[in-house]
Design goal:
It is a single chain. The protein is an alpha/beta fold. It is built from 16 helices and 18 strands. The protein is globular and about 75 Å long. The protein starts with a strand and ends in a 12-residue tail after the last helix.
C-alpha cells in the first residue's frame, strides 16, 4: 500500500496574500467548494483573527464544506487561537494551525524573544488549541533558516503538548532541494515520537524552487504538502498544487505515496482561481498553461501522432483539459447551458441566478458564433456576488477614436437606479472611458493594474480585462469580459468600484 500524501491547500489564506488577490467571502466559498470537489484533504480557509471579514469567510467555508478538513491559521497566542476555534466550529472536520518563528533572525529582530520563551509560547499555544480540536498543526516559521538543534527541541516539546502535524516551512524560499530534504530527514530521525505525527512542508518560490523543495521533502519522509492553485502566494508565490500532484502521480515509480486528488478537476480549479483573482496563467505554465499540451515542432507532432507517449508524459484529459472545447452556441437551451456549467464545476446558487446567467450567455452567443469553456468561465465571473450591491453599472457607451484626434468617450451610467451621462477625452479610448467614470464618481482610487487577456482564439474572441484599484490601503480586482475590449475595460473598472466601500462613489454635484 502506498502512503497517503495529504494535500493542504492554502490558496484562500497564503494565496490571498499575493498583492491584489483579495477575495470576497462569496468568492472564497466558490473556490472552497471547487477544492472540495477536487478532493483536497485540508483547506486553509484564512486567518480568522486578521479581520472581521477573514473571520466571516472562514466561518462560511466551515459551514459549507463537508468532506475536506477546514483549517484556520493562528499566531501562538490565546486571542488568535480562540478566534480560530470559533470560526471553524461549524466544520465537520476542524484544524487549528498555529505558528511562531524559530530562526535566530526572526526571534531576535521580529519577536524579540529568547529561544526559551519561544518554546514556552509554542507549547502553551498547542495545549490551548487542543482544548478545541484534536487536529492541531504547529509551524516553525522560517524553519529553512532555523538551527536544527533548536527545531528538534521545539518539535519535541509541541508533540508532547499535543500537536498532530508538524510543518517545516521554507518561509523565504531560501533552501536548496538537497538541503531541505536533509533537514526533513534528520528531523524525522532525531525528534522523539516523530512517527506519531505527520511531517509537513510549506515552500515559497523566491528562487523558483518551491515545487522542487517540496518534492525532495516528500522523498525524505514528509507526508503533507502545503501548496496553492497556480502557485499563487506572497512575493513569488508558493508551491503549485497542480505540479506537486501530477509529479507524484506521474512518477509513481519514484514516490512511495500518492494523493487522493481528482486530477480531472485541476484545470477547472485553475481557471476559477485565475478568474476570481485576476491573475492570468502564463501560457507555458506546467499542467494548466494553454501551451502545456501543445506541440509546435514538426518532429514532436509526428511523434505524438504515431504514439502519444513519445512526447507526452501525461494525458491532457487527465488534468481536466477537454478535447472538444466548443460546447455551446446561440441555439443551445437552458438545460444544456446548466449541464455544461455543472461539468465545469461552476455552481449556480438559485434559479434567478441561472436565469440571469443564461440571459448573458444568449447575449454573448449573438456576438460570437462559438462559445468555448473559457467564455463560460469569464461569463460567470462577471456575476456580482450576492452580498455585493452593484451600485454603479454601464447602460451604454459611445467611443470615438480617430487618427490625429483625441479619443472621446460618452458613457451612460446608472448609479443607485439613476442614470447619468458623462463625457471625457483621453490619451486612448480606454483612458477616455476611465476619465469619464471618474469625472462622475470621484472615487479617488489609484489604478495600479490594467491587464487584457484574450480568452479564446479568433477575431471574435472575448477580451478579459482585469483592473486593480487601490484606495486607503485596500486593493480590489475588477473583472470584465466582452468581445469589445473597451466595453470589457469599462465593465472591469465598474466591477472594481462596486467592490470598494460605498464612499468610493461620490457623485459630482455639478452633474
Amino acid at each position: 500500500m502506498k502512503d497517503p500524501l495529504i494535500i493542504f491547500d492554502t490558496t484562500l489564506r497564503d494565496g490571498e496574500q499575493s498583492p491584489g488577490a483579495s477575495m470576497t467571502k462569496e468568492e472564497k466559498l466558490r473556490i472552497a467548494r471547487q477544492l472540495e470537489r477536487m478532493r483536497v484533504d485540508v483547506i486553509e480557509a484564512g486567518f480568522a483573527a486578521a479581520s472581521p471579514g477573514d473571520f466571516e469567510a472562514v466561518r462560511a467555508v466551515a459551514e459549507a464544506i463537508k468532506e475536506s478538513t477546514v483549517c484556520s491559521l493562528a499566531r501562538a497566542n490565546a486571542a488568535d487561537i480562540e478566534r480560530a476555534a470559533e470560526a471553524i466550529r461549524p466544520a465537520k472536520r476542524q484544524r487549528i494551525h498555529t505558528f511562531i518563528a524559530t530562526s535566530p533572525i526572526h526571534m531576535e529582530k521580529k519577536l524579540r524573544m529568547t529561544p526559551d520563551e519561544v518554546v514556552a509560547q509554542a507549547v502553551e499555544a498547542v495545549r490551548l488549541a487542543r482544548r478545541f480540536t484534536d487536529d492541531v498543526e504547529f509551524s516553525a516559521e522560517d524553519a529553512g533558516r532555523s538551527e536544527l538543534d533548536f527545531l528538534c527541541r521545539i518539535f519535541e516539546a509541541v508533540i508532547e503538548a499535543g500537536a498532530t502535524t508538524l510543518n517545516v516551512p521554507d518561509t523565504v524560499g531560501y533552501t536548496l532541494p538537497h538541503e531541505y530534504a536533509e533537514k526533513i530527514r534528520r528531523l524525522i530521525e532525531r525528534v522523539p515520537n516523530s512517527d506519531k505525527v505527520i511531517w509537513s512542508v510549506h515552500c515559497h518560490n523566491d528562487l523558483g524552487l518551491a515545487v522542487a523543495n517540496s518534492l525532495a521533502a516528500v522523498l525524505a519522509g514528509a507526508r503533507q504538502v502545503e501548496c496553492t492553485i497556480n502557485g499563487l502566494g506572497e512575493r513569488a508565490g508558493n508551491a503549485a498544487l497542480e505540479e506537486i500532484v501530477m509529479a507524484v502521480r506521474t512518477r509513481q515509480d519514484a514516490f512511495p505515496c500518492d494523493t487522493r486528488i481528482d486530477t480531472t478537476q485541476i484545470v477547472p480549479t485553475s481557471k476559477l482561481v485565475s478568474t476570481i483573482t485576476g491573475f492570468p496563467v502564463q501560457p507555458n505554465k506546467a499542467i494548466v498553461g494553454a501551451n502545456a499540451f501543445a506541440h509546435e515542432s514538426g518532429i514532436h507532432q509526428d511523434g505524438v501522432l504515431k504514439h502519444r507517449e513519445t512526447y507526452e508524459i501525461m494525458r491532457a484529459e487527465d488534468v481536466g483539459w477537454t478535447a472538444n472545447k466548443i460546447v455551446l452556441g446561440k441555439h443551445s437551451g437552458r438545460r444544456a447551458f446548466r449541464a455544461r456549467l455543472e461539468e465545469l464545476g461552476i455552481e449556480i446558487g438559485s434559479e434567478e441566478q441561472l436565469n440571469q446567467a443564461f440571459a448573458r450567455f444568449k447575449e454573448l452567443a449573438d456576438k460570437k458564433h462559438e462559445i468555448f469553456d473559457e467564455d463560460l468561465f469569464a461569463l460567470m465571473a462577471e456575476e456580482p456576488a450576492p452580498s455585493e450591491a452593484e451600485r454603479i453599472r454601464l447602460v451604454s457607451a459611445v467611443i470615438h477614436s480617430e487618427t490625429g484626434e483625441a479619443p472621446h468617450a460618452k458613457l451612460t451610467l446608472a448609479i443607485d437606479g439613476k442614470e447619468y451621462v458623462i463625457e471625457s477625452d483621453g490619451s486612448g479610448p480606454v483612458d477616455a472611458a476611465f476619465k469619464a467614470i471618474e469625472a462622475l464618481v470621484h472615487s479617488g482610487a489609484e489604478l495600479v493594474l490594467y491587464s487584457v487577456n484574450a480568452i479564446t482564439q479568433g477575431t471574435d474572441a472575448q477580451g478579459e480585462v482585469t483592473v486593480r484599484l487601490s484606495k486607503g490601503g485596500r486593493i480590489v480586482n475588477g473583472l470584465g469580459a466582452d468581445t469589445d475590449i473597451i466595453v470589457a475595460s469599462i465593465k472591469a473598472y465598474l466591477n472594481a468600484l462596486n467592490k470598494l466601500s460605498h464612499d468610493a462613489v461620490r457623485i459630482n454635484p455639478q452633474l
